[in-house]
Write a structure and sequence with these properties.
Shape: elongated
Structural class: mainly alpha
Number of strands: 0
Radius of gyration: 17 Å
Order of helices and strands: HHH
Oligomer: single chain
């Protein structure tokens, strides 16, 4: 009887690699928002900075949710995702609103 991919020992490794890749995307998107932290929104400031930072925060959160969905059984991943989400909230309060 052949073992399918789900039943094999390869499946947890594939899920782990996918979760690591998605988390790397989430961290990278979060790092892209750091130049906008502490910016003051004035009429002469570039509105693209705030809009880009907001987009990166949204993409980071979506990638983080995908990471949590892929690695739903691993408690350590849940702890890391919650810590990352707390950092996203802190950074979101420091980035100027694009609206």
């Amino acid at each position: 009887m052949k073992a399918t991919v789900v039943e094999s020992k390869l499946f947890p490794w594939l899920r782990g690699c996918l979760a690591a890749g998605l988390y790397a995307v989430a961290v990278f998107m979060l790092l892209l928002t750091l130049p906008a932290v502490g910016e003051v929104s004035t009429p002469t400031s570039d509105p693209d900075t705030a809009a880009g930072a907001a987009l990166c925060l949204i993409l980071s959160t979506v990638s983080l949710a995908a990471t949590a969905a892929v690695a739903y059984r691993w408690r350590a991943v849940r702890v890391v995702c919650l810590a990352h989400l707390a950092i996203v909230v802190v950074i979101a309060t420091q980035v100027p609103s694009p609206f």
